[in-house]
Amino acid sequence: PTTSPFPSVKANHTIAACFATGGPYTITATAGTGGSITPTGAVGAACGDTVSFAIAADPGYAIQDVLVDASSVGAVGAYSFNNVQANHTIAASFVDAECPAVTVGVPNGGETVISGGTANLTWTATDNVGVTCVDLLISIAGPGGPFTPVATCIGNSGTYAWTVEDSASTNCYLKVVAHDAAGNACADLSDAAFTIAS
Questions:
Q1: Tens-digit pLDDT string for the chain (198 aa)
Q2: 157: buried, middle or exposed (CB in 10 Å: 19+, 13-18, 0-12)?
Q3: For the chain, where are the alpha helices, taking DSSP H only?
Q4: Which of 15, 62, 77, 152 could cysteine-pair with 97, CB 3.0–4.6 Å?
Q5: % helix / strand / coil in the chain, to the nearest 5?
């Protein structure tokens, strides 16, 4: 056996031993969609090693959680296993943090639509993962609203046939709100007023 004496002891001490029969060990590192963990895969570690991991989210994503041996250590960007003496796992998950980009097409200012008639509302909406649905709202009292829903959570087709409300105004605005599956939402507003005429 190997001895390791503490000569002239005047304080508390600790001692740890690693044995060849207890290693080498494997740390299995995985990352979900939207980011990476480095190093990744099956990472070897000798008994007593320190192994460090870096976690990074892709553009448009954020770190959601990091699980070490199936227990959460939070949304951390780095984690180290110190004095490795067993197999371990580390798994990083990510969440979509980017809201859709949305732009009002028509009416975007200066147009006139007729009460009771049909007007095509148009827009474009894109997202790093996907637009799940779109809300269309109209204000007849200026850009500050109040806004009345025209259609709620419709498909992102880019166009909607609107039966124009029976309210004459020269201070009308269209608001388009785009949603994604992660609950992110962004909106755009007509650049200037349009008119609803009788």
A1: 556 677 778 788 777 655 555 679 999 999 999 999 999 999 999 999 999 999 999 999 999 999 999 999 999 999 999 999 999 999 999 999 999 999 999 999 999 999 999 999 999 999 999 999 999 999 999 999 999 999 999 999 999 999 998 889 999 999 999 999 999 999 999 999 999 998
A2: exposed
A3: none
A4: 62
A5: 0, 55, 45
Q: Which residue has tokens 């009416």?
A: 107
Place of tokens 């975007």: 108
150: left (phi over 0), alpha (psi -120 to 50) or beta: alpha
Name 120's Cβ contacts closer than 8 Å, sequence gap at least 6: 106, 159, 160, 161, 162
Which residues, listed in sequence order, are joined to residue 89 by a DSSP beta bridge?
28
**Tokens 């200026």 found at:** 142
3-class DSSP assignment, residue 165: coil
Q: Which two tokens stand for residue 74?
A: 């939070």
How many angstroms separate the Cα of 185 from the Cα of each of 37, 134, 178? Answer: 28, 9, 5
